[in-house]
């Protein structure tokens, strides 16, 4: 199979890899996969060692340019993407009818046009595209970061560290840099899913008095795990000392955290968002923070991302903004890439995926 070796070398020079243990197999018979980002090593290794796919990778930590993506997906059988790639009709059309599996290295799937994917599945069983995603493996890391962000915001850690470093630290003063504590508080969770529960479990030892939540409907099994009480959205706003947005971004949750919510919240309350920037109306949040309608906000996610450095929210001392790092631990990112790779391979084989999004 000398010609296979020659072809392999040529393909490798052009950024195409053939993920085969040997190179005896007919390359043309292997499904073609495009990976839109240099994902963490575990995922790439799984794809490379599988011997099941011809792999092409956007070998960079920066997003693949849209034009390049549209060019590269053409004729692919599988696509592994991250949340910065909007997978819409244009991408699906560019890929064409060969595309059978889409695997995203994220639990959030608001970057995938579900309507388009459903439409294709409904039209013809042969155009069905199966979708894999990465729930659970990131829950611990995201919950942990949410607690860190909540404490950093409520106990004013960023402000305090800045004061210490820049000479603002005078004598010990009775009211200086005071914040709000979790002990005896009411914590409200908007969207009691995996991450919402994991956050509450971590907050419980801080002697939180009461957990309340709202969701599309009561979720008794999850609520029982943390003794949380189902309330209306208005009551969540009125009663929470800390309110954490943990819901998925959908058309229904777009800007759900708006003037109406903030104006119902206590002046002493802290708002935290580690879900998606789109669930917050940022103009309304700015107003609420600037006018003292609420005490503070901690955001891991914004619209857009990155948030421009001259954005008004950056001018506020009572707003802590992180650059979307909730799942950013080495262990978790590796686990996400491994799960995304395994989902992709299973889908291409026609097997059950470890985590499949049922459209
Ligand atoms: N900041 C990050 O890096 C990061 C990392 C992981 C996940 N996330 C976000 O966190 C979200 C939650 O993840 P999860 O694993 O807990 O998902 P999940 O599906 O277990 O939980 C989402 C919850 O939101 C609820 N929800 C949906 N629509 C709602 C509505 N209209 N009103 C109230 N609740 C509603 C769902 O019913 C569900 O209980 C993801 O969708 C993702 O966007 C962010």
TrEMBL record:
Residues 33-355 form the D-isomer specific 2-hydroxyacid dehydrogenase catalytic domain. The keyword Hydrolase does not apply. The keyword Oxidoreductase applies. PROSITE patterns: D_2_HYDROXYACID_DH_1, D_2_HYDROXYACID_DH_3. Keywords: Oxidoreductase. CDD domains: GDH. Pfam families: 2-Hacid_dh (PF00389), 2-Hacid_dh_C (PF02826). One of its GO terms (molecular function) is NAD binding. One of its GO terms (cellular component) is cytosol. Residues 147-326 form the D-isomer specific 2-hydroxyacid dehydrogenase NAD-binding domain. InterPro entries: D-isomer_2-hydroxyacid_DH, D-isomer_2_OHA_DH_cat_dom, D-isomer_DH_CS, D-isomer_DH_CS1, D-isomer_DH_NAD-bd, NAD(P)-bd_dom_sf. Belongs to the D-isomer specific 2-hydroxyacid dehydrogenase family. PANTHER family: 2-HYDROXYACID DEHYDROGENASE-RELATED (PTHR10996), GLYOXYLATE REDUCTASE_HYDROXYPYRUVATE REDUCTASE B (PTHR10996:SF230). This is Glyoxylate reductase/hydroxypyruvate reductase.
């Amino acid at each position: 199979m000398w010609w296979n070796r020659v072809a392999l070398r040529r393909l490798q020079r052009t950024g195409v890899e053939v993920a085969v243990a040997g190179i005896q197999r007919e390359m043309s018979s292997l499904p073609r996969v495009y990976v839109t980002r240099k994902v963490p090593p575990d995922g790439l290794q799984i794809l490379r060692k599988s011997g099941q796919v011809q792999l092409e990778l956007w070998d960079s930590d920066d997003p693949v340019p849209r034009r390049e993506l549209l060019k590269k997906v053409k004729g692919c059988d599988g696509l592994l993407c991250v949340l910065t790639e909007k997978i819409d009709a244009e991408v699906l059309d560019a890929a064409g009818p060969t595309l059978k599996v889409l695997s995203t290295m994220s639990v959030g799937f608001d970057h995938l046009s579900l309507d388009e994917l459903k439409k294709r599945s409904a039209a013809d069983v042969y155009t069905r595209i199966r979708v894999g995603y990465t729930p659970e493996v990131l829950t611990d890391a995201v919950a942990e970061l949410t607690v860190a962000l909540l404490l950093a915001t409520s106990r004013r850690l960023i402000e305090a560290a800045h004061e210490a470093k820049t000479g603002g630290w005078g004598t010990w003063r009775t009211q200086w840099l005071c914040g709000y504590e979790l002990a005896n508080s009411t914590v409200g969770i908007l969207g009691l899913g995996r991450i919402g529960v994991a956050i509450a479990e971590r907050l419980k030892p801080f002697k939180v008095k009461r957990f309340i939540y709202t969701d599309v409907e009561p979720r008794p099994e999850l609520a029982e795990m943390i003794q949380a009480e189902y309330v209306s959205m208005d009551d969540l706003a009125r009663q929470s000392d800390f309110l954490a947005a943990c819901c998925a971004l959908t058309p229904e949750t777009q800007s759900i955290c708006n003037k109406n919510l903030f104006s119902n919240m206590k002046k002493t309350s802290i708002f935290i968002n580690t879900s998606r920037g789109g669930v917050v109306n940022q103009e309304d949040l700015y107003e609420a923070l600037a006018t003292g309608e609420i005490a503070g906000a901690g955001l891991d996610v914004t619209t857009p991302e990155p948030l421009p450095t001259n954005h008004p929210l950056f001018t506020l001392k009572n707003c802590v903004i992180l650059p979307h790092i909730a799942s950013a631990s080495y262990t978790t990112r590796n686990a996400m890439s491994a799960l995304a790779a395994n989902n992709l391979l299973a889908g291409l084989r026609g097997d059950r995926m470890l985590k499949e999004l049922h459209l």
